[in-house]
Amino acid sequence: MAHAHSVKRHKGLMDWLTTVDHKKIAILYLIAGGLFFGIGGIEALLIRVQLAKPMNDFVTAQQFNELITMHGTTMIFLGVMPVIFALMNAVVPLQIGARDVAFPFLNSLGFWTFLFGGLLLNLSWVMGGAPDAGWTSYTPLSSTTYSLTHGVDFYTIGLQIAGLGTLIGGINFLATIITMRAPGMSFMRMPMFTWTSFVTSAMILFAFPAVTVGLVLLSFDRILGANFFNVEAGGNPVLWQHIFWIFGHPEVYILILPAFGVISEVVSTFSRKRLFGYSSMVFATILIAFLGFMVWAHHMFTTGMGPVANALFSIATMLIAVPTGIKIFNWLFTMWGGQIRFTTANLFAAGFIPTFVMGGVTGVMLASAPADYQYHDTYFVVAHFHYVIVGGLVLGLFAGLHYWWPKMFGRVLNEGLGKVEFWTFIIGFHLTFFVQHFLGLIGMQRRVFTYLPNQGFDLMNLISTIGAFLMGVGVIIFLVNVAISFKQPKGVAGDVWEDGRTLEWAIPSPPPEYNFKQTPLVRGIDAFWKEKMAGNTEMTPAEPVGPIHMPSPTILPFVMSVGLFIAGLGFMFTSDDFGNSLLNFLFSNYIITGIGLAITFGSMLLRSLYDDHGWHIEPEEMNDKGVKA
Amino acid sequence: MTTPHAQQASGALPHEPEKATLEGRNKVLGFWLFLGGEAVLFGTLFATFLTLRNQVADGPSASELFSLPITAAATFILLISSLTSVFAIQAMHRGNRTSLARWLGITVVLGLAFLVLEIYEFTEYIVHDDYGMTTSAFSSAFYTLVGFHGAHVLFGILWISILIGQLFKKGLTVVTAPKVYVSAMYWHFIDVVWVFIFTVVYLLGKVVG
After folding, report:
1. Contact criterion met (CB < 8 Å) for A171 and B55
2. Interface test with A, best of B61, B140, B148, B174 (most A CBs within 10 A)
3. Confidence category of residue A167, pLDDT binned at 50, 70, 90
4. CB crowding B154-177: b at 16 or more within 10 Å, else e
5. Is the pLDDT of residue A622 over 60?
6. Are A208 and A170 within 8 A, CB to CB?
7. ipTM, two decimals
8. For labelling, which of A625, B66, B178, B182 has a CA lying 20 to 30 Å from the CA of B49?
9. Are A173 and A88 in contact (CB under 8 A)?
C-alpha cells in the first residue's frame, strides 16, 4: 500500500473514481445531481404535457403514477440533495480554513453509495416498471397487493443505499465543522453557509436512520412476507405514515437550510455589508431544525389522529414561521442601505425572498388543521411545496452555483446569459405554480392522471404547462452558459467578486489541492473582509510553511458501493422465477445478495488491514503565486 | 503506576493513544455521531415493536412464547462482556498489549456465547413452534428488532477479532488504538440496546403480557 511521501497518482477516469479530494467530490456530486435533476425535470415535463388538456391520453394512468412517483423521489433524494452536497463539499472546508474534511475516505464513500442507490432506483424504468405508489409510498398502496411490479422494491432498496450515502456525508460534515476549523474560527465566527451546513448535517444524522428503518420494514413486507403494514395479520398502515414523516418533515428543512445559508452569503457579499443579525440568524437556524422534528404529523391531519394531536401539531407548525420570519427580515435589513450589485447570483437571491415568503404563507394556511381538510391532496398543496422547494431551494442553489462557480472551476459564468436564465426560470416558475393554488382551491385533486373538461381547470392547466416548459428553457440556458464558461482559460482571480468576505475568497480559483498553503488565522466574522479592511491583501498565516499531509486516493469506496448495488438487486429478486434454473438458484438462495455483501464487507476489511499513511506535498512543490494562507 | 510516564518519556505511547492524533480524535468523535444515528435507528425499531407488540393475529403471544431463563442468561453474558471490554481499554491505557488482546478475546468469546443462545432461541421458535417472520405483525417486529441487534453483535465479534489480529501484527500504536477504542464504544452501545430489548421485549412480554 501507500508509503509516506510517495503515492501513485491516478490520471483521467481513475483519478475521478479514486479521488478523496473534497473539491473533486463536489464536482462529482454536481454532475450526478445535475443528471438526476435533468431526469426528474423531464419527468415533470411529461406530467405537464399529460395535464395540458382535459381527457388527454399522452400517457396511461399507470405511467402517470410512475412519473409522479419518480419525479418526486428523484428530485428530492437524487436531484437537490447531491447539489446541496456539491456546494457543501466545495465550500465548507474552504470557509473554515481546512485542508480537507475530517474523513476523506467516507466523503468518497458517501458519494458512491448515493450514486449507485440512485442508479438502482432509476434502473426500475427498464426492469419491469418504476415505483408507482407516490414518493411517500403509503401503505397499503405500496404493498404487493396493489403495487404489482418490482417498482416499490427498487424504491425501498435504492433509497436505503442512497440514504446511507447521505447519512455518511452528514456525519462527515458534522465532524469536519467541529474539529477542522482554523485557529480563531470560533463557532460564532463561522460563515452562515457553514452554520446551515452544520445544522443540516445534524438533521440528516437524526432523520435518515428513521426512514432507513421504514424502508427496511416495507421491503421486508414486500420481499420476505412480513406483516408490519398488513392489517390482516395485525399490521398498522398508519405506522408507515408516522415513520415516513418523522423523517420526511425534517427532510424539507434539511433541504431548505443550506439554501438559507447560500442566500445569507450572496446577499451580504453583494450588498457590501455584514449580514444583519448574525446571531439571530444562527439562533433561527437551530430553532427551525429543532421545531422541524416536532411537526411531522401535520402531514397526517386527515388521517384521523384526533383533535388534540391535530391542534398541537398545528400550533408547532405555525411556530416555525417565527424563526423563518426572522431570517427574511435579516436579509431585507442586510440589503437595506447596502451598495447592492445585481449580479446573477444576487438576482436569484433577491428572487428567492418574495417567492419563499409566498410558499411560507401557504404553509401557515396548511398548518391550520380544520382548513387542511379542504386543502388536503389538492393542487394547493402541490403549489405550496413547489414554492418552497423550487422557489426556495432551487433558486437558492442557482444563486450558490453562480456565486461559487468561479471558485469551483476557475471560470465565471456569463452574466448576461445568467440574467436571461434567471428571468426565464422565475417567470416560468410562477406561471407553472401560481395558478395551481387556485386549481387546488376550486377542487382539482393532485395525483390524478386526467380530468374532465369544463370544470374551470382547462385554462389554468395549460398555463401551468407553458410555464413548466419556460422553466425548462431556463435550465437549458444555464447548461449553455456552463458550456460557454468551459471555453475560457482556467484561473480567474481568487477574490473574483472583489467583495468576498469569507475565507474561500482568500485563495486562488480553483484552489490548489491542499487549499491553504498555511492555515490562516481568523480574527473575526467575515475573516477575509476583516483583513482587507485592515489593509491586508491576504490572510495572516497561523503556521510556518511546511510539508502538507494528504490522504491517498482509493478505489475501495467505489467497490463497496458496487457491492451494495449487487446485494440490493439480488435481494429484490429472491422470489422471482427467471425461467432459468441457474438464475433461480442464485437468486432464491441469496447467493447474489451474499456476493454483493461480501464485496462490500471485504472492502471494509481491506480498508482496516492496510492503513493509509497518506503522502506529503513538500513546500517546494507548492505553487507560490498567491497561495499564502 | 509509573508505566505510562516511563513510556511517554521513552516516546513509546501517550497515555490516551486513541486521542493522540487528529485522525484518532476525529475517529472517536465521528463514531459518537454514528452512534447517535444508530440510536435513532434502534429507536424507530423499538417504536415499531411497541406499536405492534400485541398484534399477534393467530400466532402465539409474547408470554406464551418467551422463556426468561435463556434470555436472562444472554443478558448476563452480554453485560459481563461490556465489563471485559472496559478492562481491555484500561489495559490499553496502561500500554499493555497482551492484556488488551486477552480481554478483547474474552469479550469476543462472551459475544459468541450470546449469539449462540440467540440462534438457539430463534431456532426453537422457528422449528418447534413454527413461528416465523410471516406469522403475525408481532412476529415481524420481534424478529426485525432482535435480529438487527443480533446482526450488530455478529459484526462486532468479527470486527474485534480482526482488531486482535492487527494488535499482534502492527502492535499497539496511535493508529490501532483509536480502532480498538471505537470498537469498545460500539460494544457498549449494542449492550445498552440489549438492556432495552430485554426490558421492552422480554420482561414486558412475559411479565405484563
Report:
1. no
2. B140
3. very high
4. eebbebbbbbbebbeeeebbbbbb
5. yes
6. yes
7. 0.94
8. B182
9. yes
Rounded Cα gap, residues A517 and A622, in angstroms: 8
A234 alpha carbon, distance to own chain's centre: 37
Assess contact for A116 and A567: CB atoms under 8 A: no
Task: Give kind and range of the element (H or E) at residue A617.
Answer: strand A615-617
Task: Give me the amino acid identity at A473.
Answer: V
Is the CB of residue A471 less than 8 Å from the CB of residue A428?
yes
Radius of gyration in angstroms for the set of CA atoms belonging to chain A, rounded to a whole number:
25
Single-letter residue type at A140: P
Is residue A586 located within the same domain as residue A604?
A: yes
Q: Which domain holds residue A158?
A: 12-554+612-621
Report yes or no on A332 lying in a domain.
Answer: yes
Q: CA A387 to CA B154: how far, in whole Å?
A: 47
In chain A, residues with a C-beta closer than 8 Å to the C-beta of B48 are: 213, 217, 228, 239, 243
A368 contacts A311 by C-beta, under 8 angstroms: no
B17-50 per-position pLDDT tens digit? 998 999 999 999 999 999 999 999 999 999 999 9
A85, A187: one domain = yes
How many structural domains are present in chain A?
2
Q: Which residues contact A186 (CB under 8 A, 6 or more apart)?
A: none
Question: Which regions of chain B does DSSP assign to beta strands (E)?
Answer: none
Domain B77-209 falls in which CATH fold?
Four Helix Bundle (Hemerythrin (Met), subunit A) (1.20.120)
A579 and A458: one domain?
no
Cβ-count burial A250-267 (b if 16+ within 10 Å, e if not) = bbbbbbbbbbbbbbbbbb
Interface test with B, best of A171, A223, A574 (most B CBs within 10 A): A171
Contact A304, A373 (CB under 8 A): no
Asked whether residue A569 falls in the same domain as residue A544, the answer is: no
